[in-house]
């Protein structure tokens, strides 16, 4: 159980922390310093390095979460409300990430490669909105995970 919880928390920290850094720190700095071609190229390369970590986090979160749900709580019936809510918000985050990966991120990569900056800007704006939603969900999930058992 201790290993599963540790891996689960580390995966969440990597994913949510990465989104927080990208949204709150990197995005405003890139907007203020870089012209669209450099900014889009930067984001393409940032996502190229960050998204494999998100894939790993997603797999670890899902694997350890389901293992704890069934091995520790005995299934959905044995889990308290906060575990159900964590699962729901986590699955929503995963669905949003999968959409980002398979749709706007792919289009962003193609636009940057073709130097189609307006198209790349549209894709980056969509990714930004979706990551913003995921960041909010991630922070809510962390709050539920850390405080839910005490309510």
UniProtKB/TrEMBL annotation:
Where does the record place a coiled coil? none
Q: Where on the tree of life does the source sit, at the highest rank?
A: Bacteria
Q: Mind telling me which residue stretches traverse the membrane in this protein?
A: 6-29, 50-75, 81-102, 130-150
Per the UniProt record, one Pfam family is CopD
Q: Ranges for the Copper resistance protein D domain?
A: 45-146
Keyword Transmembrane helix assigned to the entry: answer is yes
Determine if Membrane is one of this entry's keywords. Answer: yes
Its keywords, alphabetically, are: Membrane, Transmembrane, Transmembrane helix
User: In its UniProt entry, what is this protein called?
Assistant: DUF4149 domain-containing protein
Q: Which organism is it from?
A: Halomonas flagellata
Q: What taxonomic ancestry is recorded?
A: Bacteria, Pseudomonadati, Pseudomonadota, Gammaproteobacteria, Oceanospirillales
């Amino acid at each position: 159980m201790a290993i599963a919880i540790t891996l689960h928390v580390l995966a969440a920290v990597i994913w949510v922390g990465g989104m927080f850094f990208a949204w709150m720190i990197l995005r405003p700095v890139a907007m203020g310093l870089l012209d669209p071609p450099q900014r889009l190229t930067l984001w393409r390369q940032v996502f190229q390095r960050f998204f494999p970590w998100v894939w790993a986090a997603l797999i670890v979160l899902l694997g350890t979460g389901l293992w704890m749900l069934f091995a520790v709580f005995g299934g959905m019936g044995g889990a308290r409300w906060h575990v159900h809510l964590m699962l729901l918000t986590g699955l929503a985050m995963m669905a949003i990430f999968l959409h980002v990966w398979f749709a706007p991120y792919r289009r962003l990569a193609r636009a940057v490669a073709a130097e189609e900056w307006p198209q790349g800007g549209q894709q980056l704006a969509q990714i930004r909105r979706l990551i913003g939603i995921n960041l909010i969900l991630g922070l809510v999930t962390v709050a539920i995970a850390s405080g839910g058992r005490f309510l």
